[in-house]
Amino acid sequence: MDIRSLAPGLSVTGQLHPDDVVALKNAGYRAIICNRPDGESGDQPLFADIERAAQQHGMQAHYLPVDTGKVSDEQAELFGKLLETLPHPLIAYCRSGMRSTTLWALSQAGAQPLEQIVDAAREAGFDMASVARRIANQGRTPVNVAEAAHQVVIVGGGAAGIATASSLLAREPGLDIAIIDPADVHYYQPGWTLVGAGVFEAPQTAHSMGATMPRGVHWIKSAVAAFEPERNALILDGCRVVRYQQLIVCPGLKLDWQAIEGLSETLGRNGVTSNYLYHLAPYTWQLVQQLRGGRAIFTQPPMPIKCAGAPQKAMYLSADHWRRSEVLGDTQIEFYSAGAVLFGVADYVPALMEYVEAYRIDLNFGHTLTRVDGAARTATFRCVAADGSTGSVTRPFDMLHVVPPQVSPDFVRASALADAAGWIDVDPATLRHKSWENIHALGDAANTSNAKTAAAARKQAPVVAHNVLAALGRAKGTALYHGYGSCPLTVERGRIVLAEFSYGGKVTPSFPSWLIDGTRPSRLAWLLKERILPPLYWKGMLKGREWLAKPELADL
């Protein structure tokens, strides 16, 4: 923990973990304020975990979530009231401490001199100069004052952002690029399914963000609060402003754990897990090993979600372990999907159904998880019948693997860049924004109809890189993306159905059928997933090497 004192009785820090609470108690802290909304990243403990640990140690914990960079005057007032009413000393946290510091600074406006507020924050390591300008500007952030300006600004340092930056630099060395991302760690998220199956260890999927950032790129370690596309500007956490000539938006998506009643209170306990969280994928494997019979439920929410096959991958690999451990006969496996079919591309369904039948999986379509009672070990679903009528069903479980509903990040949904559903509105072929010619988007937050996978980002990154350079006058022609996505469906340990498809569900294999027939389970596809794709990701895709990913050019 990096604890910083702001004022008598008040400290701030970055993301807390349940294990940190005992150290805070021993240091004399009596209360905790959480200013980070649940679901911002895949390595984030939920507030319920922190609250439970605080209660165990006789501390108070309060949830005052604030979207990145969007601290309102009302939230600052609530923060000020908590400072008055909670026992001291207390500690507030968010991702980095910036939001908590901003809340404090705004709550003190009028109570102490502005210079004193800025100095106190500076001594704690936080630059509140932009917040001071907001206070002086009657609560508005002046976008005519920018802390930085770059030729290309990329929002998001995940797979899409790093790959695009590297593709740009491979084509145009020396280009002035900045990546905005507050995270300390970059994750290979496709590996989390294999962590949940005991094939990988979780640390294998994590590299430091600093080591992952391409050489020569400016890393702005912050989070975006808002877009000002008419001014070619971004507002960051702490009210800072960054300007750009070309903007690339790829911030990923948000896991909406709060959309399922009772889930956040029991996730990681009572047999409830999810491979969509870094720290819970090992718990999945623990539950799979411990289960010696009973009912195991796997869920899939409404689309879109990242890697639509991931809910099934967890189920098939778990079933395979139970078969190898000779407890499959005593285990009832149930799959509850909000969708109407097992997989959206029909060519791959026959092979999957062979495993569904072999594992005796009970398929339930049109079922959306709405509530989890961890103590009672029950899951409740809203179900839609074939005639359109709706109802609900509650099922007991011994193990529950949950895939949460997923939405675009809050700062995207609330912006002029979003379509009616909240996703970034781009042309599906060029990935250029439909309204703003100097903005492109790729990855999970774009409204393209492709599968939201790292494989899709690998194909999209060179397209965006070329088209951004063309917009800068440094390349000719237009690169096109055809909707490629890949989903290696791990149907058993050692075999994969390698689903590859483009827009419209067109099967788009990368290999000849004599080498890998994607419609059939393949050992070679497993070797590709386990041994080849991870180094290809770290040393190829993220380094700007475009093996099987060079874009098609039009208008030459």
UniProtKB/TrEMBL annotation:
GO terms assigned for molecular function: FAD binding; hydrolase activity; quinone binding; sulfide:quinone oxidoreductase activity
Cofactor: FAD
Pfam families assigned to the protein according to its UniProt record, in alphabetical order: BLH_phosphatase, Pyr_redox_2
Sequence ranges assigned to domain FAD/NAD(P)-binding in this UniProt record: 151-268
Keywords, sorted A to Z: FAD, Flavoprotein, Oxidoreductase, Quinone, Transit peptide
Keyword Ribonucleoprotein set for record: no
GO biological process, one term: sulfide oxidation, using sulfide:quinone oxidoreductase
This protein's record includes keyword Transcription: no
Lineage: superkingdom: Bacteria
Domain annotation Beta-lactamase hydrolase-like protein phosphatase-like: ranges: 2-111
InterPro entries per the UniProt record, alphabetical: BLH_phosphatase-like, FAD/NAD-bd_sf, FAD/NAD-binding_dom, Prot-tyrosine_phosphatase-like, Sulphide_quinone_reductase
UniProt xrefs under PANTHER family: SULFIDE:QUINONE OXIDOREDUCTASE, SULFIDE:QUINONE OXIDOREDUCTASE, MITOCHONDRIAL
NCBIfam families on file: TIGR01244 family sulfur transferase
Name this protein carries in UniProt: Sulfide:quinone oxidoreductase
